[in-house]
Amino acid sequence: MIERHLMKVRARHAISDAEEQAIRNSVSEYRSHKADQTIIRRGERLHHSTLLLEGLMCRYKDLRSGKRQISELLVAGDFADLHSFPLKRLDHDIMTLTPCEVALVPHAHISDMIACFPRLGRIFWFLTTLDAAVHREWELSLGQRSGIARLAHLFCELYARLQITKLAENQSFGLDLTQTDLGESTGLTVVHVNRCLKELRTQGLVTFQSGQVTIHDLTGLRRLAEFDPAYLYLDGPYEID
Amino acid sequence: MIERHLMKVRARHAISDAEEQAIRNSVSEYRSHKADQTIIRRGERLHHSTLLLEGLMCRYKDLRSGKRQISELLVAGDFADLHSFPLKRLDHDIMTLTPCEVALVPHAHISDMIACFPRLGRIFWFLTTLDAAVHREWELSLGQRSGIARLAHLFCELYARLQITKLAENQSFGLDLTQTDLGESTGLTVVHVNRCLKELRTQGLVTFQSGQVTIHDLTGLRRLAEFDPAYLYLDGPYEID
DNA sequence: CGGGTGGTTGAGCTTTCTCAAATAGAGTGG
DNA sequence: CCACTCTATTTGAGAAAGCTCAACCACCCG
Questions:
Q1: Percent of chain B at pLDDT above 90?
Q2: B44: helix, coil or strand?
Q3: A167-181 pLDDT, tens per residue?
Q4: Taking each helix axis from N to C terminus, what angle separates B17-25 and B3-10, rounded to the nearest 10 degrees?
Q5: What is the pLDDT of residues B82-97, one digit of tens each?
């Protein structure tokens, strides 16, 4: 099931059969995790990167008070911590939000791949800068968008990202999160998330019920969110010079 | 004046004389910019990266209403858009906040450097992931910290980052920003920034006046901000395998 | 001396939070 | 199949943080 990751790579860059094979061969091990498990802790020295094959995870940081901020949601096909390759240890924790299937890619294998296929080095670098682009868009949400627009934007982002791997189609996708998770993603309390969701429903834009997001008016949702997918860099393939 | 950039690199990684020379030789051109100029626009195809030698710049995104969110402050020694090397075009704008001196590094030179010195490839990659780490910490601020704590945290971050290049010493540093700039960095209105600064002053923690930040109680400021410098990865040097 | 920018303060308002309680649903053991 | 429990959702009411609007002040520069 590394296919989803390859779809994600190919959405931005053309890769050769040999490069694809190198990526497939880089996995050393497969693992399963239950929901709500912190699987990578900030500060620990890492020797492999984790590729999410199935399920939802998130990066988060928290304050002493227990207030938690999710800094990015990770979906099937995403590398959870490719940046641990250059960084060696993370500044944040990563946890599962649903049961997850992952593949482990030893840093040594990444090193070898890059040496063998320099283009893959650029592609991996690109993928980590994509995370930064998502962070910037979320900073805009957290700093300037209203509660309802933050949620609308989050749904637009997930819809766009899940379409890449065919996990979203026909204005709808499964999203097995609680309203608390949405709150921690958008910097809002559960109570306020609940009221904003109701408002989005009332306005006929989108419904979020029993793990399913259904977009009733994509244009309206995007307008409310001021969603511009440019930051997801999906208008590739990009050349590598 | 590329020295500041080298100090920043050396704070995390050991580099050889040859590598240092390669970095020095990579500059193709020097430029000056006035304050408040957008020097890199989102979406434009870039063929060089800009190294900030002197002055302050920021990345930002804005909404139709004109509300602007600064996603990162850039100080002397920082690459403004090293990520444009893998990304080709940016998802955000970059503007000067003060008059600035910059050096341009053509992407072709970066490509050559990496080919010649693979370790530099890793170091540059590291630098771009560092920006993402700052973004994540700001997401935590924007989503969960109070106004006063956001400002306190910002001052702590800048103090730590400016110390690397000796631009901050003795609990004090020059910071030629307006309160509006601070507001756009912290997701607060100018009026509220003003009141929070007053509160920080009253509590004897820090003063921000006429372009100068003076920290009166670093321990107290850090406690209020819950500042943990781990995300700046300053406890190097890190090895590269 | 006048205009412009940036800082400061007041007053009222809005969004969002907090606290609290009621409701709904899924899963479990009897 | 039902009572029980646990978690998640929903709603109400009051409080607080932060926003808006507006005015005034200070300083710098020409």
A1: 96
A2: coil
A3: 999 999 999 999 999
A4: 140
A5: 999 999 999 999 999 9
Chains A and B: how many Cβ contacts under 8 Å?
137
CA of B179 to C1' of C12 (A): 23
Choose among B88, B121, B231: nearest Cβ to A91.
B231
Q: Would you state the pLDDT for residue A21?
A: 97
The phi and psi torsions of A172 (rounded to 5 degrees) equal -150, 150
Please tell me if residue A59 touches chain B, with a CB cutoff of 8 Å. Answer: yes
Residue whose token pair is 């995370």: A131
Distance CA A68, CA A47 (A): 27
Integer Cα distance of B52 and B97 in angstroms: 12
| Nucleotide with C1' nearest the B211 CA | C6
Q: Which of residues 178-217 of B touch strand C (CB under 7 A)?
A: 178-180, 190-191, 194-195, 197-198, 209
Cβ-proximal residues to B130 (8 Å cutoff; 6+ apart), any chain? B232, B233
Nearest C-alpha of chain A: how many angstroms from B73? 12
Radius of gyration of chain B (CA): 18
Q: Residue B112 in contact with residue A42, Cβ under 8 Å?
A: no
Verify if strand C has an atom below 7 Å from the CB of B232: no
DSSP letters of A145-198? S-HHHHHHHHHHHHHHHHHHTTSEETTEEE----HHHHHHHHT--HHHHHHHHH
Handedness of CA B168, B172, B175, B177 (dihedral sign): positive
Nearest C-alpha in A relative to B89: A233
Q: What's the CA gap between B149 and B151, in Å, rounded?
A: 5
Could you give the CA distance from residue A152 to residue B79 in angstroms, rounded to a whole number? 33
Using the Cβ of B119 and the Cβ atoms of chain A, whether some distance falls under 8 Å is answered with: no
| CA dist., res. A154 & res. A145, Å (int) | 11
Q: Cα–Cα distances in Å, from A192 out to A35, A157, A232, B203?
A: 24, 20, 28, 32
Nucleotide nearest to A149 (CA to C1'): C15
Note the CA–C1' distance, B22 to D19, in angstroms.
Answer: 51
